[in-house]
Amino acid sequence: MQLGRKGWNNVVIFSMLLMIFFFNGLHTKLNSGSEQSSVQSVLPAQNFILALEFPDQKIERIGTSWRATALINNAPASFWQATTANLVALVNEWQSMQLSVADDQRAFHNTPALTVATVWLAGEQLPWLYLLYSAPQGYYLLDKSNQRVLSLDKATAQRLFPSFNFSQSEPK
Questions:
Q1: Is the pTM for the entire model greater than 0.85?
Q2: What is the DSSP letter of 77?
Q3: What are the structural domain ranges in the chain?
Q4: Is residue 82 within 8 Å of 57, Cβ to Cβ?
Protein backbone atom coordinates (compact mmCIF):
# COMPACT_ATOMS: atom_id res chain seq x y z
CA MET A 1 0.00 0.00 0.00
CA GLN A 2 1.48 3.28 -1.12
CA LEU A 3 0.59 6.43 0.82
CA GLY A 4 1.33 9.92 -0.29
CA ARG A 5 2.68 12.66 1.89
CA LYS A 6 -0.81 13.73 3.06
CA GLY A 7 -1.69 10.13 3.84
CA TRP A 8 1.40 9.64 6.02
CA ASN A 9 0.69 12.95 7.79
CA ASN A 10 -2.80 11.68 8.63
CA VAL A 11 -1.37 8.38 9.92
CA VAL A 12 1.07 10.26 12.17
CA ILE A 13 -1.67 12.58 13.46
CA PHE A 14 -4.06 9.73 14.28
CA SER A 15 -1.33 7.67 15.93
CA MET A 16 -0.35 10.66 18.09
CA LEU A 17 -3.99 11.17 19.09
CA LEU A 18 -4.26 7.50 20.05
CA MET A 19 -1.10 7.79 22.15
CA ILE A 20 -2.44 10.89 23.90
CA PHE A 21 -5.75 9.17 24.71
CA PHE A 22 -3.90 6.06 25.89
CA PHE A 23 -1.57 7.97 28.20
CA ASN A 24 -4.39 10.17 29.49
CA GLY A 25 -6.49 7.12 30.30
CA LEU A 26 -3.52 5.40 31.92
CA HIS A 27 -2.85 8.50 34.02
CA THR A 28 -6.41 8.68 35.35
CA LYS A 29 -6.47 4.93 35.96
CA LEU A 30 -3.29 5.09 38.05
CA ASN A 31 -4.50 8.10 40.04
CA SER A 32 -7.96 6.72 40.77
CA GLY A 33 -6.50 4.19 43.20
CA SER A 34 -4.91 6.88 45.35
CA GLU A 35 -8.17 8.85 45.61
CA GLN A 36 -9.90 5.92 47.26
CA SER A 37 -7.12 5.50 49.78
CA SER A 38 -8.13 4.43 53.25
CA VAL A 39 -6.29 7.42 54.79
CA GLN A 40 -7.16 10.87 53.47
CA SER A 41 -6.32 14.42 54.40
CA VAL A 42 -9.15 16.23 56.19
CA LEU A 43 -8.56 19.49 54.33
CA PRO A 44 -7.47 19.83 50.70
CA ALA A 45 -3.71 19.95 50.21
CA GLN A 46 -1.99 23.30 49.67
CA ASN A 47 -4.86 25.31 51.17
CA PHE A 48 -4.56 27.88 53.92
CA ILE A 49 -7.05 28.27 56.72
CA LEU A 50 -8.40 31.80 57.05
CA ALA A 51 -10.85 31.11 59.89
CA LEU A 52 -12.06 28.24 62.08
CA GLU A 53 -15.47 28.56 63.68
CA PHE A 54 -16.84 26.40 66.47
CA PRO A 55 -20.19 26.87 68.23
CA ASP A 56 -18.54 28.78 71.08
CA GLN A 57 -15.69 30.66 69.38
CA LYS A 58 -14.25 31.86 66.10
CA ILE A 59 -10.53 31.77 65.30
CA GLU A 60 -9.39 34.17 62.57
CA ARG A 61 -6.11 34.87 60.85
CA ILE A 62 -5.02 38.46 61.50
CA GLY A 63 -1.93 39.11 59.39
CA THR A 64 0.53 36.44 60.46
CA SER A 65 -1.08 35.73 63.84
CA TRP A 66 -4.38 34.32 65.08
CA ARG A 67 -7.22 35.81 67.14
CA ALA A 68 -9.96 33.98 69.01
CA THR A 69 -13.35 35.62 69.53
CA ALA A 70 -15.98 34.23 71.89
CA LEU A 71 -19.34 33.71 70.18
CA ILE A 72 -21.27 32.94 73.37
CA ASN A 73 -21.52 35.45 76.21
CA ASN A 74 -20.86 33.98 79.66
CA ALA A 75 -19.74 30.66 78.19
CA PRO A 76 -18.70 28.03 80.74
CA ALA A 77 -14.99 27.92 81.41
CA SER A 78 -13.07 25.46 79.29
CA PHE A 79 -9.84 23.70 80.16
CA TRP A 80 -8.51 24.76 76.74
CA GLN A 81 -7.20 28.32 76.68
CA ALA A 82 -7.01 30.29 73.43
CA THR A 83 -3.37 31.34 73.73
CA THR A 84 -1.34 32.18 70.64
CA ALA A 85 0.57 28.89 70.85
CA ASN A 86 -2.65 26.88 71.25
CA LEU A 87 -4.29 28.66 68.31
CA VAL A 88 -1.30 28.00 66.02
CA ALA A 89 -1.20 24.36 67.15
CA LEU A 90 -4.94 23.94 66.51
CA VAL A 91 -4.75 25.42 63.01
CA ASN A 92 -1.71 23.28 62.18
CA GLU A 93 -3.56 20.23 63.50
CA TRP A 94 -6.48 20.88 61.16
CA GLN A 95 -4.22 21.55 58.16
CA SER A 96 -2.08 18.43 58.60
CA MET A 97 -4.67 15.96 59.93
CA GLN A 98 -5.10 12.72 58.00
CA LEU A 99 -7.87 10.32 58.97
CA SER A 100 -9.03 6.95 57.78
CA VAL A 101 -12.21 6.70 55.75
CA ALA A 102 -14.92 4.96 57.74
CA ASP A 103 -15.86 1.52 56.48
CA ASP A 104 -19.44 2.08 57.57
CA GLN A 105 -20.66 4.99 55.41
CA ARG A 106 -23.89 5.21 57.36
CA ALA A 107 -26.42 8.00 57.19
CA PHE A 108 -26.42 10.53 60.02
CA HIS A 109 -29.68 12.29 59.24
CA ASN A 110 -31.45 10.72 62.24
CA THR A 111 -28.80 11.47 64.85
CA PRO A 112 -27.83 14.97 65.95
CA ALA A 113 -24.22 16.03 65.60
CA LEU A 114 -22.26 16.54 68.80
CA THR A 115 -20.57 19.67 67.48
CA VAL A 116 -19.63 21.35 64.22
CA ALA A 117 -16.56 23.09 62.82
CA THR A 118 -16.73 25.58 59.96
CA VAL A 119 -13.44 26.05 58.12
CA TRP A 120 -12.90 29.01 55.79
CA LEU A 121 -10.13 28.34 53.26
CA ALA A 122 -8.24 30.79 51.07
CA GLY A 123 -9.59 30.81 47.53
CA GLU A 124 -12.88 29.14 48.46
CA GLN A 125 -16.19 30.98 48.29
CA LEU A 126 -18.03 28.73 50.72
CA PRO A 127 -16.82 27.30 54.02
CA TRP A 128 -16.16 23.61 54.62
CA LEU A 129 -18.41 22.06 57.27
CA TYR A 130 -17.32 19.21 59.52
CA LEU A 131 -19.82 17.56 61.85
CA LEU A 132 -18.69 15.34 64.72
CA TYR A 133 -20.81 12.28 65.56
CA SER A 134 -20.45 9.69 68.26
CA ALA A 135 -19.65 6.14 67.13
CA PRO A 136 -19.51 2.83 69.00
CA GLN A 137 -15.69 2.83 68.84
CA GLY A 138 -14.75 6.50 68.85
CA TYR A 139 -16.15 9.21 66.63
CA TYR A 140 -17.10 9.97 63.03
CA LEU A 141 -16.28 13.22 61.25
CA LEU A 142 -18.70 13.98 58.43
CA ASP A 143 -17.19 16.19 55.72
CA LYS A 144 -20.26 17.92 54.25
CA SER A 145 -18.29 19.41 51.34
CA ASN A 146 -17.13 16.06 49.96
CA GLN A 147 -19.72 13.81 51.62
CA ARG A 148 -16.98 11.73 53.26
CA VAL A 149 -17.21 9.98 56.60
CA LEU A 150 -13.91 9.80 58.45
CA SER A 151 -13.30 7.82 61.61
CA LEU A 152 -11.27 9.12 64.51
CA ASP A 153 -10.53 8.19 68.08
CA LYS A 154 -11.32 10.28 71.14
CA ALA A 155 -7.80 11.76 71.46
CA THR A 156 -7.85 12.98 67.85
CA ALA A 157 -11.37 14.37 68.26
CA GLN A 158 -10.24 16.26 71.36
CA ARG A 159 -7.33 17.77 69.43
CA LEU A 160 -9.60 18.93 66.57
CA PHE A 161 -12.39 20.18 68.86
CA PRO A 162 -10.50 21.34 71.97
CA SER A 163 -13.24 23.49 73.50
CA PHE A 164 -15.94 20.80 73.22
CA ASN A 165 -16.79 18.99 76.47
CA PHE A 166 -16.47 15.31 75.53
CA SER A 167 -17.49 14.09 78.99
CA GLN A 168 -21.09 15.19 78.27
CA SER A 169 -21.24 13.13 75.07
CA GLU A 170 -20.09 9.84 76.59
CA PRO A 171 -22.74 7.23 77.38
CA LYS A 172 -23.50 6.76 81.06
A1: no
A2: P
A3: 1-36, 39-168
A4: yes
